[in-house]
Design a protein that fits this description.
The structure is a homodimer.
Chain A lengths: L1 H4 L1 E9 L1 H17 L4 E6 L3 H14 L4 E5 L2 H10 L3 E11 H8 L4 E6 L6 H6 L2 E4 L7 H12 L14 E3 L8 E3 L3 H4 L3
Parallel strand pairs in A: 1-2, 1-5, 2-3, 4-5, 4-6
Antiparallel strand pairs in A: 7-8
């Protein structure tokens, strides 16, 4: 259902291997869990992080891709050339609720999230600079709330294709199930 | 407006100084920006992180407190004894939308977020184990979406008391304003 709706890419600017390892991983996990199709890392090439991310997809399902961008402006251009809207999440931008309906008219969206230092071009090449509160907080949280508004909460019920394990919601404790069809998938 | 609604505390379990510095800071920033009243850190005592957090409050306003908990079960007991509901955010829990209306009946809520290893007690002492999707992602994102559902989006328009600086939303670029009344505040 979400699939037919929006094709979302997330471009993470300025990743630094040591400092940003966990934050970028969280951003990837949110991108996947909240329905993005592609996660693109700019900055340091971090093969270990990419590998971990792909392993998560193998274990928990879905088909989000993990990509590396050496030149983020080219990545933006590539997405724009294929009809995408470019959205930059920043505490300086316009309140999400004031622009989300315009954004929802597009079916392909590239969401740019920054690290510590975001180049000025990010503000200029984006069609929308969008804030999730005008307070300093977290690109991880901003991304989650943005995607939640974009998908209008439907991402919470998204099924991820071919998981190895899945979780059954439980009021107390942990219920983890093995997907009985997983083995078969391996031979596709 | 949010103030009259809910008094929310966020309890971060198992903080580790080096590894969790940025993730815990993000969790604090989200707590503040999304309307929590107290942020309680359990695990390593991290005075530098606490100091940074308090400086953020001084700069951007608000009155969220930063506390340290040596014994998190005692913190839970203290909150419960003063009429709080205890909510634990976990990917194994019940979908947020299935329980949020029950949670909203309480006016004081302690939200527990974990790190890598969450003790089993967290599942048992909580009134609700709540999931924001049953997928692995980020306690920072889970906290943001949970508070967004709790406050029903009103946290996006929250004014933080006595900021030194504030941001004026802008479609492009950065507009940062000094609060002209800030100096006066210093002498209160």
């Amino acid at each position: 259902m979400i699939e037919a709706d929006f094709e979302v890419g997330v471009l993470r600017l300025g990743h630094r291997i040591v400092r940003d390892k966990r934050v970028t991983t969280h951003a990837f996990l949110v991108s996947r869990a909240f329905g993005a199709k592609a996660f693109i890392i700019h900055g340091d090439k971090d093969s270990k992080l990419e590998e971990n991310a792909r392993r998560i997809v193998k274990t928990w399902g879905g088909k989000v891709t993990v990509e590396y961008s050496e030149n983020w402006l080219e990545t933006v251009k590539k997405w724009r050339d294929t009809g995408s809207l470019i959205v930059h999440l920043t505490m300086y931008g316009m309140p999400v609720e004031s622009v989300i309906n315009y954004i929802r008219e597009f079916k392909r969206i590239l969401v740019i999230i920054g690290g510590q230092k975001v180049p000025g071009e990010a503000y200029r090449v984006s069609d929308y600079n969008v804030s999730i509160t005008n307070q300093p907080h977290s690109e991880i949280a901003a991304l989650a709330v943005f995607l939640d508004r974009l998908f209008q909460g439907r991402e919470l019920y998204m099924q991820h294709e071919k998981p190895r394990f899945f979780i059954v919601p439980s009021p107390r404790g942990k219920v983890i199930c093995k997907n009985p069809f997983y083995k078969a998938n391996r031979f596709e």
